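Hi R.,

As promised on Friday, here is the backbone we talked about, encoded as structure tokens. Could you run it through your design pipeline when you get a chance and send me back a sequence?
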């Protein structure tokens, strides 16, 4: 598959077969995505891979919150500008109509829409999720870096015959994500490289572009948390810290 084919065939998939994917494939994808450019070569993305029991733990915590009527955490950023210019408001509305219409949910069916949205917090059935954080001090240019990185991941997944869905929806339960992912409050580069060396689930899998072997260690360490090496991982890309919304 060439880059044009990857770009054209990528689409947001919201129903995964759950077909297994070797951990080595994800390692290959993430290692290559680390080649993504970034302003000043900051490589500011902090990524965390959850799968197996840890992902199940996250999903069930959010499931419990939703069942208790909890509508989520205060959002760190607005999903869209307050007064969305008409052209964008129209695209957003059309997207919603297509999305819910495809599921046979009428516009006024609030419960139906909520049920469809809640599939977000099941990762649409995918058994692995990649969470991307940026340090609190990072600015919009670094958000752009993260987007470039994530698009690289999504295109590389296509080359591997896999699909994905970016998900800002996880930001709605970001406190619970934080409990499970357990990222450092505001990692410094030094702290980052320390945790990289210690890499386990809950520590970043990101690394310097020149240091991709660390990434492989991270993936292996993820497996030490209950996913046997070689056990297959699915692929959904969860992008919980940028500023776009479904
Ligand atoms: C940053 C970002 C966040 C997104 N968040 C969600 C989300 O939370 N849930 C979802 O179902 N789709 C989400 N999407 C997918 C968009 O709805 C989708 O990309 C858009 O409708 C275009 O469709 P396509 O990806 O199939 O080309 C997100 C996309 C991006 C880029």
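Update: got your reply. Pasting your designed sequence below so it's all in one thread:
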């Amino acid at each position: 598959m060439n880059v044009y084919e990857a770009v054209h065939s990528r689409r947001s998939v919201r129903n995964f077969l759950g077909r297994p994917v070797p951990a080595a494939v994800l390692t290959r994808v993430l290692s290559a995505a680390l080649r993504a450019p970034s302003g000043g070569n900051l490589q500011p993305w902090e990524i965390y891979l959850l799968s197996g029991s840890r992902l199940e733990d996250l999903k069930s915590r959010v499931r419990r919150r939703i069942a208790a009527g909890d509508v989520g955490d205060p959002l760190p950023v607005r999903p869209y500008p307050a007064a969305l210019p008409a052209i964008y408001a129209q695209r957003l509305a059309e997207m919603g109509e297509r999305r819910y219409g495809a599921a046979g949910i009428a516009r006024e069916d609030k419960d139906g829409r909520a049920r469809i949205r809640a599939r977000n917090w099941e990762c649409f059935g995918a058994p692995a999720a990649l969470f991307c954080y940026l340090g609190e001090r990072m600015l919009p240019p670094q958000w752009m870096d993260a987007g470039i990185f994530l698009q690289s991941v999504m295109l590389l997944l296509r080359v591997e015959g896999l699909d994905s869905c970016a998900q800002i929806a996880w930001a709605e339960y970001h406190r619970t994500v934080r409990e499970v992912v357990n990222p450092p409050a505001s990692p410094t580069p030094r702290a980052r490289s320390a945790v990289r060396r210690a890499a386990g689930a809950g520590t970043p899998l990101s690394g310097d572009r020149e240091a991709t072997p660390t990434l492989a260690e991270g993936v292996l360490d993820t497996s030490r948390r209950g996913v046997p090496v070689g056990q297959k991982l699915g692929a959904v890309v969860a992008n919980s810290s940028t500023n776009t919304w479904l």
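One thing I noticed while checking it: Residues 3-81+125-238 form a domain with the NADH Oxidase fold (CATH 3.40.109.10).

Thanks again,
M.
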